Amino acid sequence: MICPNITVNEKNHLCFAGRDTTQLAEKYSTPLYLYDEQLIRQKCRMYKKAMAEYMGAGSRPVYAGKAACFKHMYEIMGQEDMCVDLVSSGEIYTAMKAGFPMERAFFHGNNKTDGDIAYAIDCGVGHFVVDSFDELYALDAIAKEKGVVQKVLLRVTPGIDPHTYEAVNTGKVDSKFGVAIETGQAAEFCKAALELSNISLQGWHCHVGSQVFDEDHSVYHDTAEIMLSFMKEMNEKHGLSLNVLNIGGGYGVRYVNSDPAIDIPQNIKTLGDFIKEYCEKLAMPAPIILMEPGRSIVADAGMTLYTVGTIKKIPGYKNYVSIDGGMTDNPRYALYGSKYTVFNASRVESEDKLRCDLVGRCCESDDVIQPDVSLTAPGRGDVVAVCTTGAYNYSMSSNYNRVGRPAVLMLTETGEHIAVRRETLEDILSCDM
Ligand code: LLP
Fold first, then answer.
1. Which CATH superfamily is 37-293 part of?
2. Closest-CA residue to 110 (of 130, 84, 96)
3. Distance 67 CA to ligand 1 centre (A)
4. Is 363 in the active site?
5. pLDDT digit string (tens) for 3-56?
6. Residue-range domain boundaries for the chain
7. CA of 293, closest atom in ligand 1
8. Coil, strand, or helix at residue 143?
9. Neighbouring-strand partners of residue 14
10. Which residue intervals of 382-424 are DSSP H helices?
11. pTM of this prediction exceeds 0.90
């Protein structure tokens, strides 16, 4: 199976986190997002343990909330003593409402508005990850008005191409994010930050991309080399001792069997050893390392259930199996051509298979969840499961065609609870005047 928490029971039904998914579909209706809460907690603990052990005291993971953002997720992150990365006033508000301790939050974004900046300061966000000169000056001015000295990391671009898909490739010099080291602008960025009275520079941030497998370790090692050399240069030039380096998120996850399975603690060890050695070579103390995993914490802890509706067979052409959700709850195939593993959860194993495109209900031909899949004898009313949907599905969902968003159901060791209820027709109208 694509993930160890997916099994098949004696009724030939698909089980997720030990639950029969067809029963969950019947009880809670579909489409339905499922989360294995225990797996999310295990991943947080795995990152925390490995980073503390292999990257030195103070090193820790920062959960990238954009991957899956709703109140209960921040409750989990609060309980697991995680830091979080937030990118909008909406994400900050959600974390606040969950009672997340805001001093453990890092506020990101390439275009924080003055309103966002003021709101984040008022909420007591621990660190801003400042993305541009414009933001730096705006933040200093707003912090001054509020009588606050704001802690910041500066986001710089190391000029690394992580060879992932273009939409999530962010570390290159010509990126909209961060300030480039190569052009000399990052050094100016540092100087500018040090001259501002309401900015307290704590360290550096970079993020090269998402869904990075980095099997030969070159991406993160090259990134670390560039960042550590830059840190040393800035420390020497300005007589500083800044010792925080946030190297962003990005470990890839397995969506289909042909994707590699990454041993994250082992990768963290290899990277931690590399950083220590490289720092010795540079004769500098190894910094505190922060990493910002999103996908690798929540993706395979998630699954989406749908009900099969129309089945259309076009002899000599292809077959379509339509489900009751689509690009509104999972736009990732439409946007990136992302791969997914899918099952007929009502009948997992059988010789009788149908080759088909699994498509959504929206008025758009690109509304495809996954093309050319093999489903075991699908029939109207069957439950279809799409695996590994825990990251960037709920958080990227929309109301296109005025389709309501599905509920989010958390499966825990002892029970289950709805973290986000299903949107009703009234919800769809709730902002219309
Ligand atoms: N830190 C920063 C600054 C980021 O921009 C991101 C992701 C992360 C951390 C978390 O990366 P992760 O560990 O999740 O790979 N919607 C796209 C993914 C966009 C990623 C944006 N930034 C998708 O569905 O594939």
1. Alanine racemase (3.20.20.10)
2. 130
3. 7
4. yes
5. 889 999 999 999 999 999 999 999 999 999 999 999 999 999 999 999 999 999
6. 6-30+300-429, 37-293
7. 13
8. helix
9. 8
10. none
11. yes
